[in-house]
Design brief:
The complex is a heterodimer. Chain A is mainly α. Chain A has 6 helices and no strands. Chain A folds into 2 domains: about 160 residues, Helix Hairpins (Orthogonal Bundle), CATH 1.10.287; about 45 residues. Chain B has one domain. Chain B contains 3 helices and 4 strands; from the N terminus they run E-E-H-H-E-E-H. The longest helix of chain B is centred in the N-terminal third of the chain and has 19 residues. Chain B is of the alpha+beta class. In chain B, strands 3-2-1-4 form a 4-stranded mixed β-sheet, covered by helices on one side. Classes of the chains: A mainly alpha, B alpha+beta. Chains A and B meet through helix 1, helix 2, helix 3 and helix 4 of A and helix 1 and strand 4 of B.
Chain lengths: ~240, ~100
């Protein structure tokens, strides 16, 4: 059996070899191949845009979760200050869950960044090779009568075809990774929606918010009651209020 | 000789490097045949490192076919198999 490397080379080259047999006039091969290269360049540009979009979504989720860490921390302090250790514990537990989610998101963002760099490098290579191919093909076409030109057409087309297969694989892998990330980002959204992991940053209030509000409200009521009681005890408090 | 690191680019390497790549290739092929992903990844990583360290980058505007093509080391065993069988890992060039 042939080695890994020769098999890889064979497979990569076979992706483009059909093109060489396609046209009767090798000069047509050059023009057709050039069109395909431009299409491939568009594909890689789209691939980069998709990775950037996926990354932005994850980064948005990250900042949402970061805000909720700060909020839960403040809530825990408030609750503890009010002597409600049970609520403080609840807030801190949720904070831990959110922090774990954040670590996971950081890794995903780094993974996408790697894909983005790879694709941008691929785009640069392909674009430089296409430019070079464009000028070479005009030279080859001009000297087509020579037998040497035939060989050069084969070489140029095979060389550029290999670059296209390379870029094709880079796009494919970035696409797979992006889809995985999008599925996971969707899963976080679903968790949020299902209430398993509440979206602490959303406008609607969580149970914890409500309890803390009640706690604050009852503290205020208690304070006012105390104040009223004190005024009544000193006498004339009610009368003063009425005069005012 | 020209070596392509698949998804990365092309390098010019000496005959000495090619000889070492041949040895690593035999080991990698054997690892793939017995489903030893860890060994396969190690050998591919060695090949990548060897080419990156000893090779000279082919200018981006130069169009030349490669003599040797090395797959990425971070492919899973399944992806490596796909590369060689079935529909293949490398997508067809659209319209061909």
């Amino acid at each position: 059996m042939a080695g890994l490397l020769s098999r890889t080379a064979m497979i990569v080259k076979s992706k483009f070899s059909k093109l060489l047999d396609r046209a009767e006039d090798p000069r047509e091969t050059l023009d057709y191949s050039y069109e395909k290269q431009l299409e491939m360049l568009q594909n890689v540009k789209r691939g980069v845009a998709d990775v950037v979009t996926a990354k932005k979504r994850l980064q948005m989720q990250t900042s949402q979760l970061e805000a909720s860490v700060v909020k839960l921390d403040t809530q825990a302090r408030t609750a503890l200050g009010a002597g409600r250790e049970d609520l403080a514990r609840d807030a801190l537990q949720r904070k831990t869950v959110v922090q774990q989610q954040l670590q996971d998101l950081d890794q995903q963002v780094a993974g996408l960044e790697g894909q983005q760099e790879k694709l941008v490098a691929s785009e640069k290579q392909l674009s430089a090779k296409i430019e070079s191919f464009r000028s070479q093909k005009e030279v080859i076409k001009a000297q087509y009568s020579a037998a040497e030109a035939q060989v050069r057409i084969g070489e140029a087309a095979t060389g550029i075809g290999e670059q296209m297969a390379d870029t094709g694989l880079a796009i494919q892998r970035a696409k797979d990774k992006t889809e995985q990330m999008q599925a996971r980002a969707g899963a976080v959204d679903e968790l949020v929606a299902a209430g398993t992991l509440e979206d602490f940053t959303a406008g609607d209030k969580t149970q914890l918010d409500r309890e803390l509000e009640q706690l604050t409200a009852s503290t205020q009521v208690d304070a006012e009651l105390d104040k009223m009681k004190a005024e009544l005890a000193s006498g004339g408090g009610e009368k003063k209020e009425l005069e005012a | 000789m020209i070596v392509r690191l698949l998804t990365e680019g092309q390098y010019r390497v000496s005959d000495e490097v090619v000889k070492r790549l041949d040895g690593l290739d035999d080991q990698a092929t054997a690892a793939l045949d017995r489903d030893d992903e860890a060994e396969l990844d190690r050998r591919l990583e060695e090949m990548w490192a060897l080419v990156e360290e000893q090779g000279e980058r082919v200018p981006e505007d130069e169009i030349a076919p490669s003599d040797v093509i090395i797959p990425p080391s971070d492919l899973t065993l399944e992806e490596t198999r796909q590369l060689f069988h079935g529909d293949g890992l490398i997508p067809d060039i659209p319209g061909l």
